[in-house]
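User: Predict the complex with zinc ion.
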Amino acid sequence: MSNYVRIFDTTLRDGEQTPGVTLTPEQKLEIAVQLDRLGVDVIEAGFPAASMGEMEAVKRVSEAGLRAEICALARAVKEDIDAAMKCDPGSIHVFFSTSDVHLRSVLKISYEEALRRIEEAIDYTKAHGFICEFSPMDATRTNLDFLKRVCVLAEETGADRINIPDTVGIMTPRSMHELISEIRGVVNVPISVHCHNDFGLAVANTLSGIEAGAVQAHVTMNGIGERAGNAALEEVVLALHLLFGKKTKIDASKIYATSQIVRRLTGVPIQPHKPIVGDNAFAHESGIHVRGVVMDPASFEPFKPELVGRVRKIVAGKHAGRHGIKTILEESGLTPTEQQLEKIVERVKELGDKGKAVTDTDVVAIARSIMETPPSEKKILDLKELAVMTGTGVIPTSSVRLSVRGKDYVASETGVGPVDASLKAIQRIIQNLARVNLKEFRIEAVTGGSDAVAEVIVKVEDEGGRMVSARGAREDIVMASVEAMINALNKLLSERAT
Ligand code: KIV
Ligand code: ZN
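Assistant: Here is the predicted structure with zinc ion placed in the model:
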């Protein structure tokens, strides 16, 4: 198929070369099984000559009966190729450095010696009946005439595919297009591209190589890999499907699950704004965007999140408008009145302006407390002022000014802490209306961090045994407690009035 692109996944090999990442054979197998479900054509399972564990891992992946071709990496030396062959893979990926900097400074050999070793290694691999993919390492910094000689020799010796690695990620989409066109001009075997992300161009360069005629892309899940990583599978595949009109065997709906497995087993976190698999890739916060996606998701989404196994997220925050907050609340089964919604939005924006990252859970807590607060015209009690003093060497004291049926009263009390003192001051002010006992007091930090919204739940009982509970939610614990107490008293007094 002329528009079919093969996906060669190297998460288990180049991806494992991410600094700090090591995978056990069991973990490699778990990832390989998921990559196979995802539909990759080739799984590069590892570098068997590197260690016994690596050899065991490649062997286990090879024996797992997966649909994908299982590939083992080998330097162009007999020992590495022998180690690879012992794993019984479907193919062997043989590589040899070809750039001047590698040949002169690292290997200290001539072009002729390099050609001899490449020929010997491919010949050896093919003589043992394996599919051989050959990579001239650091191809993109290799003298072009020499690179062409290498590729022609590799094809003549029997290499089944030639992969062009941009080992240090120095290509641009234009130079990659030119290079692949040049190589296509001298060989007939399928050409592959392998791009690193040192300048953030790995995906663009991969796509450009494919536009120039490469038919296979080396990629890793979540773009993990050496240094700045490799071209990300999810980005390359989605761009191929949706922007370039190409086909792959990838079942895009399994992309997110695969990404999460790789994140969990490698321990490499995914940046929130990472395309396709990042937390924010389908999250909308700004009021304009939220209103748009609620009316028609296509207004601010290039494709539906379900396509890659995800769901749209409406996020709270100071940019969120009424629509966003209403949607979040409806999802939690809360339907505030217009007046209440206005207050909730106001409180969310206030928090955002103070630099707090407001979460959905915060919004729900704020909404529950506001929905329990009676409208101003029905309020019997209303907090006008609160001042607390606390610390070492002072007795915690609270002064409260409360309006009771429109008339202001002030009281000060001490307590074991500022919350205790404030609740006592409120009880003092209302003692002529009701004598209440605090039967229960519960405080929960809704989200993590010292700036978390605290939700306080109180249960109070009056002298007649009537019991009510109410809640308050503020980023200030004292304010949350006072709000909960006043909400409870308003409930109690208005019930008694009826
Ligand atoms: O980046 C690279 O050059 C490689 C080779 C082993 C192909 O990963
Ligand atoms: Zn690489």
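The chain has a mean pLDDT of 93.
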